[in-house]
Amino acid sequence: MRYRPLGRTGLRVSELFFGAMTFHERGDVARYRAMLDAYAEAGGNVIDTASAYGESEPILGELLAGHRDRFVLASKYSISRDQDDPNAGGNHRKNLVLTLERSLRRLRTEYVDLYWVHLWDRHTPLEETMRALDDVVRAGKVLYVGISDAPAWVVSRADTLAEWRGWTPFAGLQVPYNLLKRDIERELLPMAEALRLTVAAWAPLARGVLSGKFLQDGTPQGDTRVDPGTLTARDHAVAYAVSQAAADLGTTPARVALAWLRARSPVIHPIIGARDVAQLTDNLGATEVELPEEIVERLAAAAEFEAGFPADFLAECEADPWVFGKGRPGLLVS
User: Fold this and answer.
1) Where is the NADP-dependent oxidoreductase domain (predicted)?
2) Three-state SS for 318?
């Protein structure tokens, strides 16, 4: 397992993050412990959870007792703690403070390494959220902050506010990204690369569709949470292309799908989740897969995607001498 800095910080994070969203059954603690042990033995050091993930935080608090500082522990706030209380959800200061305090108790720790805004709350001013996050950082209860599931303009404006006012900026962005769902390539991924934000990619296997579970005729192999009837012809074509690439390389479809994400940009860190050690071990093997450029392009072509306006329009303009002249930016040397 290799490591990169988290965003513009000096914190080293492993190239694959571990998602503990499925840690919700008290009776399965032994299985969860075996999975965490396998992840740690492979060199993984980032564990991602959230206040809204049921029993995940209390279970992690039990499992990490005695070696919590070995991990970069991440949690989230925003989603309601009590649906009858209008102030128990959202990105305002009150919900941040109360949710964080509960998470610290449940995780049995005095701090979290990375605290995510779980999703954008259009009813809370960004100034309030960023200042409140900076306050918990200054109090030592949070070390770094990030944001999940928000528009690019929100993230960039929040980081600009932090820069101008001396507050803690976002170090990471958490978004869905896989071969079937490439929306972040329009605005969010270019923004993250420009601002040097780590991108934690959730659902990297598209809920298992890219793991080789589905045959060419759509028949699932083994357990799946996906209704085969909801899959499109494009979904099946991409899943088949991933399986074919895996066969060509002598590896598994899950590893190919994860390796494709890693090949797209050095800022991307897939969040892997698993039902058992065997599945987790397969996913961890993606760090050993280096895809040839031909396969990267073949898979991208199978997962047809249009960036749309303004990206496609601006690319055309840059290639046209009428716009920037014959010394257009693509030919300039900095």
Assistant:
1) 16-302
2) helix
Dihedral angle sign, alpha carbons of residues 59, 283, 261, 216: negative
Question: What is the predicted pLDDT for the residue at 225?
Answer: 65
Query: Would you say residue 111 lies in a domain?
Result: yes
Residue 220 β-bridge partners:
214
pTM: 0.93
- Of the candidates 215, 200, 232, the one whose C-alpha atom is nearest the C-alpha of residue 303 is 232
The pLDDT tens digits of the residues spanning 283-295 come to 999 999 999 999 9
| Domain count along the chain | 1
**Cβ contact 11:45 at 8 Å:** no
CATH of the domain at 79: 3.20.20.100
- Say if 102 falls within a structural domain: yes
Q: Are strands 17-19 and 72-77 parallel, antiparallel or unpaired?
A: unpaired
Helix (H/G/I), strand (E/B), else coil: 295: helix
**pLDDT score recorded for residue 97:** 98
Contacts of 288 (CB under 8 A, 6+ apart): 255
| Residue 212 tokens, joined | 């080789």
Question: Is there a domain that residue 323 lies in?
Answer: no
3-5 and 12-14 strand pairing: antiparallel
Distance of alpha carbon 173 from alpha carbon 187, whole angstroms:
12
Residue 291 has, within 13 A of its CA and on its CB side, a CA count of 26
Strands (E), 192-279: 198-202, 268-272
> 268-272 and 12-14 as β-strands: parallel, antiparallel, unpaired?
unpaired
Reduce the secondary structure of 162-194 to three states and give it as a string.
Answer: HHHHCCCCEEEEEEECECCECHHHCCHHHHHHH
Which residue out of 32, 53, 111, 115 is catalytically annotated?
A: 53
Q: Tokens for 249, please give them.
A: 């390389």
| Residue 111 among the catalytic residues | no
Question: In sequence order, which residues have a C-beta less than 8 Å from that of residue 263 and are 6 or more positions away?
Answer: 290, 291, 296
Q: Which residues constitute the domain of residue 31?
A: 3-176
Domain-embedded: residue 315: no
Query: Per the structure block, which two tokens stand in for 190?
Result: 């270019």
The single-letter code of the amino acid at 57 is: E
